[in-house]
Amino acid sequence: MRQHYDIIIVGAGAGGGTLAYALRNSGARILVIERGGFLPIELENWDSKAVFQEQRYKTKEKWLDSKGKLFQPSTHYYVGGNTKFYGASLFRLRREDFQTVEHAEGISPAWPIQYEDLAPFYTEAEKIYNVHGNATEDPTEPPHESDYLHPAVPHEPFIAEVAASLKKLGLNPFSIPLGIDLGPQGACVRCATCDGFPCMLHAKADAETACIRPALASGNVELMIQTKVRRLITDKQGKRVTKVEVERMGTVEEIAGDLVVLSAGAVNSAAILLRSANDTHPNGLANASNQVGRNYMQHNNSLIMSIGMKSNKTRFQKTLSINDFYFGDTDWSFPMGNLQLLGKVDANTLKSELPYLSDWFLHKIALHSIDWFAMSEDLPDPENRVIIDSSGRINLHYRPNNLSAHRQLVRKIRQTMREIGFPLTFTKKLGVEANSHQCGTIRFGDDPATSVLNAYCQTYEVPNLFVVDSSFFPSSAAVNPALTIAAQALRVAKYMASKNYLF
Predict the structure, then answer these.
(1) Residue burial 140-174, b: 16+ Cβ < 10 Å; e: rest
(2) What is the fold of 4-38+65-498?
C-alpha cells in the first residue's frame, strides 16, 4: 500500500464502487477502503435459514433508536455493501420526483438537479449494472434515450396470470428493471434465492461484481479491506482533508489523499463527519449548516402476503411491479408509492417474522402466497437524524411520517388482490431496523445554509471532500435508490475529470 493517493474512496457499495469503476482509467491513483471483506462463497449463501433466521451476514453492530433501545440494523459490511443482498431492482426516479411534490402529510422538496441532468447517467449505469427491462410498460416511467439494452426478465406462468388479471382491472403492471446476468451465456439460473441473498454465481449485478472487480483489474485502483474509517483529518485551516484515520488489524494509522470521497452509506457517512469535528468544524466536518446527520429517510415499507387457493410454484418471483398508485388515483389524490414483488418466500423466511407459527403451517402459507413489497415515500424531517453519543455509538432517531399514504397503498393492494382471487392478505410494517434504503443525511442543494453538498456532491466548506452515496438525497421518492446512487456517481466522476480534481 502507498501512503499517499490521488483519491481515497470510503466504502465499496453502489456509490463508491461505481465511482471507482468510472475513474479506473483516469490516471489517478485510487484507494477504496472497505470496512468489511469479500463475502465468502459458501452453501449458506442460498440457505434461507442461515440468511434470515440466523442473520449470518448482517453486522453484529448495534445502534440505538430514539427511545434508547438497541437494535441490529439491516446493514452488511462487505465489498459491494448492501448491494450484495439487494433484489437488483434498479429503478430510475420518476421525472416528478426531482420536483416539489405535495404529499398527504407534507412536502417532498425539489432536487437541485432535474431528471434530464441525470438521464444520460441513468442510461450508462443501466449498462454497467446489466439491467433488463422494458421502458414502455409503465406510464410513470420517465423518458429514455432508448430502451434497455437487455429485454425484461420474463414472468413465470403464475406471475404472468397475475399480471393478466391486473390488466383486466385496468392497471398497468410492468416488468421490474433487474440487474442480473441473464441470457444464453449468462450466469443467472433464476434461482429462488436472489432477493435478500448473496449470489454464489456472481450473476447478480452488485457493486462488487459490476464495478469493484473490473476497477481492480485496471491496475489503477487498490482495495483495503477489513478497515474501519474513524475520522477525517484536515489541515490547520480546516479547508482541506489531508488524511483519513483508519483502524486496521487492531492498529490505528493515517492515509493521505488529495481528494476524499465518503461512500459509507447515509448513516455511516454522517457518523464519520460528526466524529471528525475539530476546532474549525466544532459541530462536525463540513457542518456549518447543522444539516449533517439530519433529514434521515428510509421509506415506509411493508411486507405483504396475499393467499389464494392455487399453488404458487414460482421460483424467481421478483419480476412484476405496479406504479398505478405512485402519484395517487381517483380515490386518493396524493402519492401512495410503489408495489413490487419480493423474491418467493419459504417457511424459513417467514419463521424469522412469525416465530410462533409451526414450520408446517408456514410452508402451507408460502405455497399459496404471492409476496409483495409496498414502498411509500417518507418526508425529510430535521429531527430524524444520526447522532453520535459520548461513547461513539450511533443513535438513529427516526419517527416515520406520511403514514396515511402508506396505509392507503396497503389498502389498495389488499382490495386489488381480493378482486383477482386472493381473499386473504397479511401485512407487516417494517421498523427502523429495515434501513436498506437509508438516505438523506448529507443533503445536496443550491444553498449552503440549508445543505451540505453542492449539486455535484462536493461539500461547500471542504472543496476536496465529496459524499457519493444515498446521503445526498433531499427526498426519498418511492422507488429503490441504488440506480440513482450509481448514476450520480457517474455524474460526479465526469465533474471531477472536467475540473481537473484528479491530477
Answers:
(1) bbbeeeeebebebbebbebbeebbebbeeeebbbb
(2) FAD/NAD(P)-binding domain (3.50.50)
